[in-house]
């Protein structure tokens, strides 16, 4: 894809309509604090639609801007800033009337079809479709850091397609909230900005729905400060010269076959074997095995590998949190598994059992367990152990994001190149399968692909 270049045609700021949102200070909840460590979230939506440059500029772009402004009126925290004052004051989100998000308009010289491919492809190309991170400002008189929370880029592939790219700080919103925002934007665009025709639910921004009787927020802020109060500093050098990415699809039939195979291999009682459990177990095993091959078992002295699982808590686990809550409502666990056991032929089964057991444990004490897992995170990062996390979820239904041009031909989580996570979503085919995005150096990806293809053959 070396022919692909992106030229920025316009850069502007988009804000809610004037005087439509009052100045608002939003405190972080304990579920927000966790994500202060996280790199910016980057996602692209690729649409195959034959807009000419003139048609896009004259008809599409003005409506995209207006509908975005109206969407931001509902989701105004995205326009605010992550305010990080000196201690003892707490970090928070501050929105002032007139605050805005960075909006870039660009045009690509490449072919849209190259970005729709699932095969191995250069990681760097896709990063041209998301906006750069707006800089943090420091107010000299108070030493307060102000960090913008969202930026948007729309890239035209003339007579071929359109890409909507977003980049945002996880501290302000989780995947469910961000997809709710983009779907709201799409719905308003489809309605030609007639708000009376927009049926999508309003977000619930009241932070009071996240109860914290045990003081988890204070404890987690303490962990954050003890670790040097880091917020993610993006480093373009983190993209290796030979980094590639690919999308792997598992059909519903293949997933059900995995469940039956794992169940037959495990005879130690009832198992929780969801599509998430068996898929992530299989991918995790393939990643560790491929890493061992390309490093000649250089990690043989690492005793444990870790998997960070996260689940949405809206209206689950006895928590009365509405489905439309805007913010972070994710809790999880850390699954640790002996590295040596990944070498065993049938290790997918015990790995799946370990993940399933951890998912089951969420039913009892989801919040307390999450606090305990979070307290271990800095230590795990500094230990040098292998840690895998997941970005996205099939429950986001991201392929339902329709601006009136039909469903996206492809949705990608871009930042997995930087975070080392895998991405997980529903299959665009609508067949009940799953799509998994993976990004590693080229050699490991080639070996991983081989393990993936061979591994599917064992589940019979």
UniProtKB/TrEMBL annotation:
This is Anthocyanin acyltransferase. Signal peptide: none annotated. GO terms for molecular function: acyltransferase activity, transferring groups other than amino-acyl groups. It comes from the Eukaryota. Pfam families: Transferase (PF02458). It comes from Kalanchoe fedtschenkoi (Lavender scallops). The keyword Protein biosynthesis does not apply. Keywords: Acyltransferase, Transferase.
């Amino acid at each position: 894809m070396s022919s692909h270049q992106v030229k920025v045609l316009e850069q502007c700021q988009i804000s809610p309509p004037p005087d439509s949102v009052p100045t608002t200070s939003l405190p972080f909840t304990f579920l927000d604090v966790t994500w202060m460590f996280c790199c910016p979230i980057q996602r692209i939506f690729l649409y195959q639609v034959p807009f000419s440059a003139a048609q896009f500029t004259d008809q599409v772009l003005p409506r995209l801007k207006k509908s975005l402004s109206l969407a931001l009126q509902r989701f105004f925290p995205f326009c605010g800033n992550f305010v990080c004052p000196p201690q003892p004051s707490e970090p928070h989100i501050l929105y002032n009337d007139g605050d805005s998000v960075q909006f870039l308009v660009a045009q690509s010289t490449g072919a849209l079809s190259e970005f729709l491919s699932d095969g191995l492809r250069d990681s760097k190309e896709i990063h041209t479709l998301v906006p750069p991170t707006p800089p943090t400002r420091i107010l000299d008189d108070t030493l307060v850091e102000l960090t913008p929370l969202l930026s948007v880029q729309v890239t035209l592939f003339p007579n071929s397609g359109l890409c909507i790219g977003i980049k945002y700080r996880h501290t302000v919103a989780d995947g469910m909230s961000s997809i709710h925002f983009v779907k709201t934007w799409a719905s308003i665009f489809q309605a030609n900005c007639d708000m009376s025709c927009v049926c999508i639910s309003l977000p619930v921004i009241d932070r009071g729905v996240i109860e914290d009787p045990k003081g988890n927020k204070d404890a987690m802020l303490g962990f954050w400060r003890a670790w040097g109060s880091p917020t993610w500093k993006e480093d373009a050098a983190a993209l290796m010269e030979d980094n590639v990415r690919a999308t792997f699809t598992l059909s519903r039939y293949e997933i059900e076959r995995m469940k039956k195979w794992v169940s037959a291999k495990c005879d130690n009682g009832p198992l929780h074997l969801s599509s998430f459990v068996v898929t992530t177990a299989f991918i995790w095993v393939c990643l560790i095995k491929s890493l061992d091959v390309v490093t000649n078992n250089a990690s043989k002295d690492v005793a444990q590998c870790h998997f960070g699982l996260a689940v949405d808590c809206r209206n689950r686990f006895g928590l009365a949190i509405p489905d439309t809550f805007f913010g972070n409502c994710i809790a999880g666990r850390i699954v640790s598994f002996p590295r040596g056991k990944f070498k065993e032929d049938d290790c997918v089964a015990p790995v799946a059992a370990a993940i399933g057991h951890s998912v089951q444990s969420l039913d009892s004490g989801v919040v307390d367990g999450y606090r305990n897992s979070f307290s271990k995170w800095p230590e795990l990062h500094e230990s040098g152990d292998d840690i895998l996390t997941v970005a996205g979820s099939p429950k986001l239904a991201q392929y339902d994001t329709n601006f009136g041009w039909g469903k996206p031909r492809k949705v990608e989580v871009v930042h997995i190149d930087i975070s080392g996570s895998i991405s997980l979503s529903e299959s665009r085919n609508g067949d009940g399968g799953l799509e998994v995005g993976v990004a590693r150096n080229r050699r490991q990806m080639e070996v991983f692909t081989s393990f993936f293809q061979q591994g599917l053959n064992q589940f019979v």
